[in-house]
């Protein structure tokens, strides 16, 4: 009798594997040097964030410190024991899936924004979301754990994740091994220059009306816009163009005049 074992794209046809265990199959794969087996990863939850679209999300974590996110755990992981002791750590690593870019595939070469979008680097030499496995990682600040109405959640801040991003894993940030002050940062050795952000009278009035609902809104807008979220090819052109971004359910419009972001209006979508 012949047995067909399906491991993603790999099919092994061998009568000796009739009673094989998973370990035996693994040993067979290693011995024959197969390198195209697949691994299934189950998300542990998803994160809710102010960023409802990809445009204007900070390119790195920690740049918008006012940006809070709440991880809602899926049923299988909805147990407070999974987070026991996590409050000992001020910061955490989040591993997640770039779910909105996965279908677009990947390329071995990408154009990092830090190089103006004009130079190409290997995808593994960048943090581009267009990756072979679409896995991202961010260090975030721990805020709180909650278990209300039988639902486990974890609040963090300093996030750079799109709303509803699947979370794959959470690990504590351990300073003595994770912080390397003498490390070389390549093209991103230094933080980018921040842009000034001001609000028109109309935008300030709208902020005051929204303050109770979104207490950190003004800080969040400043932190996001100071990073200059525009595409690299826009940064030296279109001086009178009006840009728009969505935070929470709000549409924020602004212009860039002489390297200064001027927030024009803030409206509910």
UniProtKB/TrEMBL annotation:
TsaA-like domain location: 41-182
Gene3D superfamilies, alphabetized: YaeB-like
One Pfam family in the UniProt entry: TrmO_C
Entry-linked InterPro entries: TrmO-like_N (IPR023370), TrmO_C (IPR041369), UPF0066_cons_site (IPR023368), YaeB-like (IPR040372), YaeB-like_sf (IPR036413), YaeB_N_sf (IPR036414)
Keyword S-adenosyl-L-methionine found: yes
One of the record's GO molecular function terms: tRNA (L-threonylcarbamoyladenosine(37)-C2) methyltransferase activity
Keywords (A to Z) from UniProt: S-adenosyl-L-methionine
Domain of life assignment: Bacteria
Family: Belongs to the tRNA methyltransferase O family.
Protein name, as recorded: TsaA-like domain-containing protein
Organism (species): Paraglaciecola psychrophila 170
Taxonomy of the source species: Bacteria, Pseudomonadati, Pseudomonadota, Gammaproteobacteria, Alteromonadales
């Amino acid at each position: 009798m012949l047995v067909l074992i399906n491991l993603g794209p790999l099919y092994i046809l061998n009568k000796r594997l009739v009673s094989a265990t998973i370990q035996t199959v693994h040993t067979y794969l290693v011995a024959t040097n197969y390198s195209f087996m697949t691994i299934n990863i189950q998300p542990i939850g998803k994160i809710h964030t102010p960023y409802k679209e990809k445009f204007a999300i900070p390119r790195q974590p920690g740049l918008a410190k006012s940006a809070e996110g709440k991880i809602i755990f899926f049923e299988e992981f909805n147990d407070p024991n999974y987070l026991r002791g996590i409050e000992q750590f001020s910061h955490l690593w989040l591993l997640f899936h770039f779910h909105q870019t996965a279908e677009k595939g990947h390329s071995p070469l990408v154009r990092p924004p830090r190089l103006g979008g004009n130079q190409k680097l290997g995808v593994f030499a960048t943090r581009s979301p267009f990756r072979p496995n679409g896995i991202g990682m961010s260090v975030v600040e721990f805020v709180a754990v909650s278990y209300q109405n039988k639902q486990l959640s974890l609040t963090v801040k300093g996030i750079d994740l799109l709303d509803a991003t699947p979370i794959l894993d959470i690990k504590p940030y351990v300073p003595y091994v994770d912080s390397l002050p003498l490390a070389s940062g390549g093209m991103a050795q230094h933080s980018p220059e921040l842009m000034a952000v001001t609000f028109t009278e109309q935008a300030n009035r709208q902020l005051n009306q929204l303050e109770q609902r979104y207490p950190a809104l003004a800080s969040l807008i400043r932190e996001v816009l100071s990073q200059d979220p525009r595409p690299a090819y826009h940064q030296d052109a279109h001086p009178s163009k009006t840009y728009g971004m969505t935070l929470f359910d709000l549409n924020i419009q602004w212009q860039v005049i002489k390297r200064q972001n001027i927030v024009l209006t803030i409206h509910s979508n």
